[in-house]
Amino acid sequence: MDAIWPAAPSLRRPRILQQGWRDLTFLHWAVDPSDVAHFFPPGVRPDTFEGRTFVGLVPFRMIDTGLPHGPAVPYLGTFLETNIRLYSVDTSGRRGVVFLSLDADRLAVVTAARTVFGLPYRWARMTHVADGNHHTYTSTLRWPGVRASVAIGVRTGQPVELGPLEHFLTARWGLHISRAGRTWYLPNQHPAWTLHAAELVSFEDEGLLASVGLGHLTNPPDHVAYSPGVPAEFALPFRA
Q: Which pick of 113, 201, 203, 234 has the fewest CB atoms within 10 Å?
């Protein structure tokens, strides 16, 4: 059954991390849930909206990463990221995302996130340029055995009201992770997104979607949006 989306729940577990997400562009492709079900960890399945699930490609700026109530980590706390994600729900009804890749331009961040959380971070050379209402993002992997890059250009417009689909795509309060043979849930909270209309003016995917097994997505995305961003906090993970 498709979800009715609540506001962000309070984090009941100890907070472990805070971040700022800025200048995000959301590209989404609607797909049949059976096409991506094999990517999900045990006990987790594709979440659906009107019978479809979605693949998200999201480039953005990460800023002010640090411990709760403390200063941001100098240099390493600010970086560029491009992730590819799916939308998940577990057997307890907790909804979140499953990341197929998280590419960042800080090798130390990539190493730490892979080691501590088991997240599929990869090192990449990346740029973001903002010129008025035009944003361009590039990412070229610097990862062993993978040759892939992407270049994205969007023109942003006025704020839009969040409808049911926008809530489905952005009101996700955690992520599902497979780690040490078990499925974990890493909860987060953030304010409601402010989304803007966005027009995709250029998109050159040279193997990025294919690098995570989604090379068949050659059609234009079904939904495009932009957000100036939100602050976010993460709490300790627990068994899903």
A: 201
Helix (H) or strand (E) holding 35: helix 33-36
Q: What does pLDDT average to over the chain?
A: 93
> What element of type H or E holds 110?
helix 107-117
Strand bridging mode 95-104 / 79-90: antiparallel
Cβ count within 10 A of residue 61? 18
Residue 54's φ and ψ, nearest 5 degrees, are -135, 150
The one-letter amino acid code at 42 reads P
For residue 141, the model assigns a pLDDT of 98
Single-letter code of the amino acid located at 206 = E
Residues 6+ apart with CB under 8 A from 74: none
**Per-residue b/e over 182-196, b at no fewer than 16 CB within 10 Å?**
ebbbbbbbbeebebb
Sign of CA pseudo-dihedral 153, 159, 80, 123: negative
- Structure pTM? 0.94
